[in-house]
Prior knowledge:
Blueprint: H1 35-45, H2 51-66, E1 72-74, E2 89-91
Antiparallel strand pairs: 1-2
Amino acid sequence: MLTSANPRSPAVADWAHVGLPNLGSKVVKKPKKDPVRENRIHNEAIVDTYGPEEQAMGWYYYLDSNIRFPFQACCMVSRVVSPLRKGENCRSPAHGSGGGLFA
Length: 103
């Protein structure tokens, strides 16, 4: 079970009850940046690291344990190098058997 260092801040596992956003709407508003949350995530990812290599590995493992696959995404901007077109929906592939980012 995941725990949070801040008793007023819920642990990641406590968000399991939150449903998916309304995928039927055309515009999904981007939430405002919360500096306290951003700082908490940053500190959680690079706790006890020395130097840029260890910080990169900290982010690697943080993302591996927090991004869940597969997920659905919508192309916001067409790019020459992408097969997707603006407004097109796609589903990410499942990664490995554990569903982690780099499994």
